[in-house]
Structure formats: structure tokens, C-alpha cells
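Study this chain:
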Amino acid sequence: MKKNMSTLDRIVRLVLVAAMVTLYLTNVVSGTVGIILIVASVILAFTSTVSFCPLYAIFGVSTCPVEQKGS
């Protein structure tokens, strides 16, 4: 997998994850919406960790500033 996410993109996603988990744990959001938020948080955290977003790949988007060779 080629990286297609910049550091800023990863940080923004992780901040969103922290906010969504906080909303869920403080019971501001619960029920079905809360579960959807947690699932979205897991996906955002995973894509931030591996620096690869499948949706970016589908649409041909890359926020990674360095073009990688090989791989």
C-alpha cells in the first residue's frame, strides 16, 4: 500500500476520533448514532495509523506531499 495521507490529514483524523469517542463516553451521543460514531472512529483511527485511505485511492486523491517510488 502506498501512503496517500499527509501528516496534517492524519492529525485531523485523530483529533476527530478523540472528539467522537469523548462524545460517546460522556453519553452526549448514544444509541444507534453512538454506535455509528464509534465505528467511524475505528475506521478513522486505522486509516490514520497506516497512512492509507481507501476512499482516497478510489478517487485518485493523495494528500501525501512526497511521491513514493516502488512498492
In short: The mean pLDDT is 90. The longest helix spans residues 31-50. The chain has three helices and no strands. Helices lie at 7-25, 31-50, 54-59.
